[in-house]
C-alpha cells in the first residue's frame, strides 16, 4: 500500500496486541490513571439495538455527543469530557467526571430605582418596605446595580442545584428520544420511533444504576457480549470495568480501534502477497471501510481468491461484486485488478478456513452471473435501449425515465447555449443526455444499481459512441458522495448540472421536499453537487435561471414562484454549509447572503474577500463608518423618503459633503470595474478610503436638514456610496470587536 494512503496510528503494533484471543488491551480509555474528583463520577449510557444499518451509526454517534453536550449544559451539569462509541448493535455515551450536583442557579430580577427603595441614609423607604413585603423577601436579598439610567435595586434569587442522580433519569430519555435517523421504525404498541428496535438500556452513574423507561424498556446495569461469540447477558458494576468486561466478551467498542485493527490486518495481508511476488495494493474504498468498521464488533480479516478468468470483466463490475454483495476489498497491482480479495469476518479466527472457502464459492457464483449479464447486455447497442425507458417510472407525477431523458436533452442544450459552447460541444451534450439513463434497463445495472453511469460509459464505448459522449455519461452522476470527484469534461459538467437541477426541480414540484433528517431521494446531495460544479467551473449562472428553465419543462403553470422560493432557500442552506467549511464567520455569511446569493460563484468570492478583509486592523473603524451610513438610509426608508438617483453638486453646501462627493466620484468608475471583475478585496480597499470623509461628514453635516432639497441630496450621495458597499455585503450584519 503506498505511503500516505489509509495511514495508521503510530505506536503499538495492534496486530500483535490483538493476536491474543481474547485481547487484553483497552478498547477505549476511561480515566483510570487520573483520579476522579470525589464529588464527580463517570456516567455511562448504552443503547442496545437490533442491527442498525452501518451507514447510520456514525451519524447517530455524532448526534448522541452533540445532544448530550446540549442537555448537560442546559441542566447546568459540569463534566470533563463527553465521548461516544459503538457499532451497529450498540450506541454508547460516556461522560467523564460528571459533577454530582447541578450548579446553583443565580438570577437577578431588576426592581425599581434605588432612590425609591432607599433614602439618603441607606434606610428603607415606606415604598421600599412595601416592595420587600410584596416580593416576600428580606433586605439581605437585595443588591444594587448601576444601569444606563442610574442605580437600580435587584433581587438576587439563588436556586440550589439538584443531585445529578435525580436528573439523569430525565436527561437520558430525552437524549435517546432526540436521535434522528433517515429511516426510523416503530415496534410494539407504542408510538416511539428509532432506527431499529431497542432491546436493552444500560445506565450508570458511578456504581449507581440510573432507572428510567423508554419504549417499554426499563434501564438496568446489564449488557450483552458479542452476538454469537458470547451472547450472554451480564451485569456491569461501574463504568470503569465496562470496556474490559465487554472486551472479554469479544466486543471492541471503539470504532477508531476497530479501524486501526482492520488497517493493520490489511497491511499484513498485502505484505504476504508481496512476499509471493505481487506488487499488490488494496483498492481504497472509504465508504466500505467505514461500513465494516461500524458493522463489526470484532473484525477478523482474511485473504480470498476468485477464478482468474473473471479478470476479463470490467473492473467496476468486479469491484461491485466484491464491495456491494460481499463487503470485500479489491486488490490490484499497477496493471489492474488481481484475482484476490480481502474479506472481513465478524468474529475470531475459529473455522476461518471454512469461512474463506464459503466466501470464494459465493463470489465465484456472483461473478459468473455478472459475466453472463455483461455479455448479454453488449448484444444490444445503447441507443436502442432508450425507448425501453418508457416502461421505467421515476414517480407517478414525474413520469418515466424516458420523460426525464427528453427533459435532459432540452435542458442540456439550453445550458450549452447559455455557457457559449460551440455546436460540437452542444451536440455531444445532447447525445450524452439522450443516452445517459439507458443503462438503467441493462441487466448489470439492475443487479448493481451503483454502477449506473459507470456501465453507461462501458456500453457507449462498446456501441461506438464518441469517447467524450461516453465520458459525459459517466460524469453525469458525479459527485456521488461528499468526497467524490467532480466532472472533468465540459460536456459531463453541463449534463451533471442539468440532471441534478431537473431532479431537484421535479422533486419540489411533485412535493417531495426533505424534512429534518429524512431525505430518501438524496436531494441534499444533489444540491451540494450543483453548488460544487458551479464553483469548480466558476460559472456565472443564476440559480433563478436554472430553476426557471427546468420548471418550463414540467408543463404545468401556477406554482413556479412558490417552488422557486423553496428551492432557493434549500440551496441557501447548502451555500451556508460550504462557507462554514471555508472558515467564514456566521455574521460574515449572513452579511453576504443578505445582498443576494443567486450567483453562487459570486457569493463565495464575496464571502472569502470579506473574511480576508475582516483581519485588517482598520476594519472595525471602517465598518462603523459604513454602518452609520447604512443606518441613516434605513431610517429614511422607514420614513418613506424617496431618494433620487442623481446627486446635485450645486446643492452641496458644507465642505465635508463636498469632500465626500469628490472622493466618491474619483473612485467610483475604478471601483465598479473591480466589482464587475469580482475583485472584491481590491474594490473594498478603494472604498475604504471613504472612511475618514464619512466620519467627517456625519460630524459636521446635518443629513436630515429641514431644507428638503438639501436633505434629499445628502441622502442621495450616501445612497450612491452604499450601493457600492452592498455589492459586497450588508455590513450592518457584521459583529466587529
Automatic annotation (TrEMBL):
<dbReference type="InterPro" id="IPR015944">
    <property type="entry name" value="Gly-tRNA-synth_bsu"/>
</dbReference>
<dbReference type="InterPro" id="IPR008909">
    <property type="entry name" value="DALR_anticod-bd"/>
</dbReference>
<comment type="similarity">
    <text>Belongs to the class-II aminoacyl-tRNA synthetase family.</text>
</comment>
<keyword id="KW-0436">Ligase</keyword>
<keyword id="KW-0963">Cytoplasm</keyword>
<keyword id="KW-0067">ATP-binding</keyword>
<dbReference type="GO" id="GO:0004820">
    <property type="term" value="F:glycine-tRNA ligase activity"/>
</dbReference>
<dbReference type="GO" id="GO:0006426">
    <property type="term" value="P:glycyl-tRNA aminoacylation"/>
</dbReference>
<feature type="domain" description="DALR anticodon binding">
    <location>
        <begin position="625"/>
        <end position="726"/>
    </location>
</feature>
<dbReference type="GO" id="GO:0006420">
    <property type="term" value="P:arginyl-tRNA aminoacylation"/>
</dbReference>
<keyword id="KW-0030">Aminoacyl-tRNA synthetase</keyword>
<dbReference type="Pfam" id="PF02092">
    <property type="entry name" value="tRNA_synt_2f"/>
</dbReference>
<dbReference type="InterPro" id="IPR006194">
    <property type="entry name" value="Gly-tRNA-synth_heterodimer"/>
</dbReference>
<dbReference type="GO" id="GO:0005829">
    <property type="term" value="C:cytosol"/>
</dbReference>
<keyword id="KW-0547">Nucleotide-binding</keyword>
<dbReference type="Pfam" id="PF05746">
    <property type="entry name" value="DALR_1"/>
</dbReference>
<protein>
    <recommendedName>
        <fullName>Glycine--tRNA ligase beta subunit</fullName>
        <ecNumber>6.1.1.14</ecNumber>
    </recommendedName>
</protein>
<keyword id="KW-0648">Protein biosynthesis</keyword>
<comment type="subunit">
    <text>Tetramer of two alpha and two beta subunits.</text>
</comment>
<dbReference type="GO" id="GO:0004814">
    <property type="term" value="F:arginine-tRNA ligase activity"/>
</dbReference>
<dbReference type="GO" id="GO:0005524">
    <property type="term" value="F:ATP binding"/>
</dbReference>
Amino acid at each position: 500500500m503506498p505511503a500516505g494512503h489509509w495511514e495508521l496510528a503510530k505506536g503499538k503494533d495492534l496486530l500483535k496486541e490483538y493476536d491474543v484471543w481474547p485481547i487484553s488491551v483497552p478498547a477505549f480509555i476511561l480515566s483510570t490513571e487520573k483520579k476522579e474528583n470525589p464529588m464527580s463520577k463517570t456516567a455511562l449510557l448504552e443503547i442496545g439495538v437490533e442491527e442498525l444499518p452501518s451507514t447510520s451509526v456514525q451519524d447517530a454517534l455524532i448526534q448522541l455527543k452533540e445532544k448530550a453536550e446540549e442537555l448537560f449544559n442546559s441542566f447546568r451539569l459540569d463534566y470533563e469530557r463527553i465521548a461516544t462509541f459503538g457499532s451497529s448493535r450498540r450506541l454508547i455515551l460516556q461522560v467523564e467526571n460528571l459533577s454530582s450536583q447541578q450548579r446553583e442557579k443565580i438570577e437577578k430580577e431588576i426592581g425599581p430605582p434605588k432612590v425609591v427603595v432607599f433614602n439618603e441614609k441607606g434606610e428603607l423607604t415606606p415604598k421600599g418596605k412595601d416592595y420587600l413585603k410584596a416580593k416576600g423577601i428580606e433586605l439581605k436579598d437585595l443588591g444594587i446595580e448601576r444601569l444606563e439610567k442610574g442605580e437600580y435595586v435587584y433581587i438576587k434569587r439563588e436556586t440550589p442545584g439538584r443531585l445529578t442522580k435525580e436528573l439523569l433519569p430525565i436527561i437520558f430519555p430525552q437524549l435517546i428520544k432526540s436521535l434522528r435517523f433517515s429511516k426510523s421504525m416503530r415496534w410494539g404498541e407504542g408510538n416511539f420511533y428509532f432506527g431499529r428496535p431497542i432491546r436493552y438500556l444500560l445506565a450508570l452513574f458511578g456504581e449507581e444504576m440510573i432507572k428510567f423507561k423508554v419504549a417499554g424498556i426499563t434501564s438496568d446495569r446489564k449488557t450483552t457480549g458479542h452476538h454469537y461469540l458470547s451472547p450472554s447477558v451480564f451485569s456491569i458494576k461501574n463504568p470503569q470495568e465496562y470496556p474490559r468486561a465487554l472486551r472479554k466478551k469479544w466486543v471492541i467498542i471503539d470504532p477508531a480501534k476497530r479501524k486501526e485493527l482492520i488497517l493493520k490486518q490489511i497491511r499484513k495481508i498485502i505484505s504476504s502477497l508481496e512476499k509471493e511476488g505481487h506488487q499488490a495494493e488494496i483498492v481504497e474504498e472509504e465508504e466500505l471501510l467505514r461500513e465494516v468498521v461500524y458493522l463489526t464488533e470484532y473484525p477478523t480479516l482474511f485473504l480470498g481468491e476468485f477464478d482468474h478468468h473473471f479478470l476479463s470483466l470490467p473492473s467496476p463490475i468486479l469491484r461491485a461484486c466484491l464491495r456491494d454483495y460481499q463487503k470485500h476489498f479489491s486488490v490490484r497491482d499497477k496493471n489492474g485488478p488481481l484475482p484476490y480479495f480481502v474479506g472481513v469476518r465478524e468474529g475470531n479466527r475459529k473455522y476461518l478456513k471454512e469461512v474463506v472457502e464459503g466466501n470464494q464459492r459465493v463470489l465465484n457464483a456472483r461473478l459468473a452471473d455478472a459475466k453472463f449479464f455483461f455479455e448479454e447486455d453488449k448484444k444490444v447497442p445503447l441507443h436502442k435501449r432508450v425507448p425501453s425507458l418508457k416502461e421505467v417510472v421515476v414517480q407517478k407525477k414525474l413520469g418515466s425515465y424516458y420523460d426525464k431523458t427528453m427533459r435532459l436533452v432540452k435542458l442540456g442544450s439550453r445550458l450549452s447555449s447559455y455557457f457559449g459552447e460551440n455546436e460540437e460541444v452542444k451536440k455531444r451534450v445532447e447525445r450524452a443526455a439522450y443516452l445517459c439513463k439507458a443503462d438503467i434497463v441493462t441487466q448489470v445495472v439492475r443487479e448493481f444499481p451503483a454502477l449506473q453511469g459507470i456501465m453507461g460509459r462501458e456500453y457507449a464505448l462498446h456501441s461506438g459512441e464518441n469517447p467524450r459522449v461516453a465520458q459525459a455519461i459517466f460524469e453525469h452522476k458525479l459527485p456521488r458522495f461528499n468526497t467524490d470527484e467532480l466532472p472533468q469534461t465540459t460536456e459531463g459538467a453541463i449534463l451533471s448540472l442539468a440532471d441534478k437541477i431537473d431532479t431537484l426541480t421535479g422533486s419540489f414540484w411533485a412535493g417531495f421536499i426533505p424534512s429534518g433528517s429524512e431525505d430518501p431521494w438524496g436531494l441534499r446531495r444533489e444540491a451540494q453537487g450543483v453548488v460544487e460544479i458551479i464553483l469548480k467551473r466558476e460559472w456565472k449562472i443564476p440559480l433563478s435561471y436554472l430553476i426557471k428553465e427546468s420548471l418550463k419543462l414540467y408543463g404545468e403553470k401556477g406554482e413556479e414562484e412558490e417552488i422557486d422560493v423553496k428551492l432557493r432557500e434549500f440551496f441557501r442552506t447548502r451555500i451556508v454549509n460550504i462557507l462554514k467549511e471555508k472558515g467564514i464567520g456566521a455574521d460574515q455569511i449572513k452579511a453576504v447572503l443578505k445582498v443576494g446569493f443567486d450567483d453562487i460563484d459570486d457569493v463565495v468570492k464575496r464571502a472569502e474577500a470579506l473574511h480576508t478583509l475582516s483581519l485588517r486592523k482598520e476594519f472595525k473603524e471602517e465598518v462603523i463608518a459604513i454602518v452609520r451610513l447604512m443606518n441613516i438610509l434605513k431610517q429614511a426608508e422607514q420614513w418613506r423618503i424617496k431618494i433620487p438617483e442623481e446627486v446635485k453638486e450645486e446643492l452641496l453646501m458644507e465642505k465635508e459633503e463636498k469632500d465626500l462627493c469628490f472622493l466618491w466620484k474619483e473612485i467610483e468608475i475604478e471601483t465598479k470595474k473591480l466589482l464587475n471583475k469580482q475583485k472584491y478585496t481590491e474594490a473594498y480597499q478603494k472604498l475604504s478610503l471613504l472612511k475618514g470623509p464619512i466620519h467627517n461628514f456625519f460630524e459636521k453635516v446635518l443629513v436630515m436638514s429641514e431644507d428638503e432639497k438639501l436633505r434629499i441630496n445628502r441622502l442621495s450621495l450616501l445612497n450612491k456610496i452604499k450601493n457600492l458597499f452592498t455589492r459586497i455585503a450588508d455590513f450592518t450584519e457584521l459583529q466587529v470587536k
